[in-house]
Design brief:
Blueprint lengths: L16 H46 L4 E3 L1 E3 L2 E23 L4 E6 L1 E3 L5 E3 L5 E3 L3 E5 L2 H43 L5 H41 L1 E3 L4 E7 L6 E2 L4 E17 L1 H4 L7 E6 L7 E8 L10 E7 L10 E16 L4 E2 L6 E9 L2 E9 L1 E5 L2 E4 L13 E3 L12 E3 L2
Parallel strand pairs: 1-23
Antiparallel strand pairs: 2-22, 3-12, 3-16, 4-8, 4-11, 5-6, 7-10, 8-9, 10-12, 12-15, 13-14, 13-16, 14-15, 16-21, 17-18, 18-19, 18-22, 20-21
Helix pairs in contact: 2-3
């Protein structure tokens, strides 16, 4: 039987178990040292690379080119703003005329028509001041005037008689007083003379009052006679309505005519509180009307309400036109308010919110150390006009001034102290 013999190395060639383990650990240590050296070198190299990158970036950041900006020069501009209001035209003055006394209409003012025929005055006719529009029958008032005259004459005659009687009583009183002093008359006679003199004086006073009353009656009679004529009170009146006819019996204060003063007209409308502060008495404005195309009128503010209307919250304003030349009550007219002011304007794109705190800033371009830089400057607003802001210049140190250069666009990428290059 053949035996199987395992092939084994000679004993001198087989390592001892201790040294075999030591050999394996040494290899692992060697490999670990190599890996550690590689990692340490790579880490140091990475740090050097990162440092060089940061350093290179710092150099680039300090040497970056100035930002290109566009600026506007802060200087005053003439700003024209306008408001338009439409309202109905109305008369400047109107009057409802009536007789102060009653009576029968005797006649009306006669006007010559286009055909040459004479007619009574009616609506639309123009009359100058003092024109007798209508006349009442004066007969009754003439008689009243005559009676008042006679009454006055009688009172004056009675007064003369009473004054004469008073004079005589005064003479008798003096004579009786002298007789009493000489014991030629009694005290009773003196008392009677005094009483007679006092009675005469009282009669004189009464007669004078009668005369005064008669004069008043006569003046009233004269006034009633004048009230029989109805006259136009306006320099240039236009008849808007006639309510009486010839021969008609009318009462005192019954409406007879409606008269308009069309020498001037007004356009009345309301403005809000944001606009009333811009208006002042005497300002002139342009007025137009669709009823009179191509015509332009000059109007003047002659009334501004002091209180706002409780419902509309607007202030009443009236514009007066002294020479309307065809502009009549009832027509619609438009008033154009034009206002010109000097203002320092900046575009809305130049305004930025303040980084700290409330408010707004602009970037002002100034020269520092031979280069242009931007500085954040506080700004206050006065008004907004379309897409521009009217700013306030207070003259304080560090504030905006006339002639400053202000960045108009690109403000969102700027910071205080940044170097810039102004683009043309």
């Amino acid at each position: 039987m053949n035996a199987i013999v395992s092939a084994s190395p000679p004993a001198e060639l087989r390592p001892l178990p201790f040294f075999a383990q030591f050999s394996t650990n040494r290899r692992k240590l060697t490999i670990g040292l190599i890996v550690l050296s590689v990692v340490t070198g790579a880490s140091f190299g990475g740090r050097q690379w990162m440092a060089s990158v940061v350093k290179s970036r710092e150099v680039v950041s300090t040497e970056v080119a100035p930002a290109s900006v566009r600026v506007v020069m802060l200087q005053p501009e003439v700003v024209a703003s306008g408001l338009r209001y439409s309202a109905a035209v109305k008369e400047l003055h109107k009057a409802e005329l009536s007789f102060r006394v009653g009576g029968t209409v005797e006649s009306l003012y006669q006007v010559r028509g286009n055909g040459g025929q004479v007619r009574n005055i009616h609506e639309g006719d123009r009359v100058p001041k003092g024109t007798a529009l209508a006349q009442l029958d004066r007969s009754d008032y003439v008689r009243e005037r005559g009676v008042a005259g006679e009454k006055l004459a009688t009172a004056e005659a009675r007064l003369e008689q009473q004054e004469a009687d008073a004079g005589l009583a005064q003479v008798e009183l003096r004579r009786t007083d002298q007789l009493v002093r000489r014991n030629a008359s009694t005290s009773a006679d003196l008392d009677a003379a005094k009483a007679k003199q006092l009675s005469a004086q009282a009669a004189v006073h009464a007669a004078r009052r009668d005369v005064q009353s008669a004069k008043i009656d006569l003046e009233q009679a004269d006034a009633n006679l004048s009230y029989c004529t109805l006259v136009s009170p306006f320099e240039e009146g236009t008849v808007a309505a006639r309510s009486i006819e010839g021969g008609e019996r009318i009462a005192a204060n019954q409406k007879a005519f409606l008269l308009l003063d069309l020498s001037s007209v007004v356009i009345a409308f309301g403005v809000p509180d944001t606009a009333v502060g811009r208006l002042s008495l005497g300002q002139t404005f342009e007025v137009t009307s669709d009823a009179l195309p191509g015509r332009r009128f000059q109007g003047t503010i002659h009334k501004i309400g002091s209180m706002a209307d409780a419902q509309t919250r607007t202030y009443a304003v009236e514009v007066r036109i002294d020479r309307p030349e065809g502009l009549r009550p009832g027509m619609m007219a438009t008033v154009a308010f034009r206002r010109e002011v000097n203002a320092h304007l900046l575009p809305l794109t130049a305004i930025v919110p303040r980084i700290t705190g409330s408010g707004y800033d602009v970037y002002r371009v100034i020269e520092e150390d031979g280069r242009d830089v931007v500085r954040a400057t506080p700004v206050e607003f006065e008004d907004v006009l379309n897409n521009r802001i009217a700013v306030r210049l207070d003259g304080q140190a560090g504030a905006l001034r006339d002639g400053d250069r202000v960045v108009a666009t690109g403000t969102h990428r700027l910071y205080d102290g940044q170097a810039v290059q102004v683009a043309e």
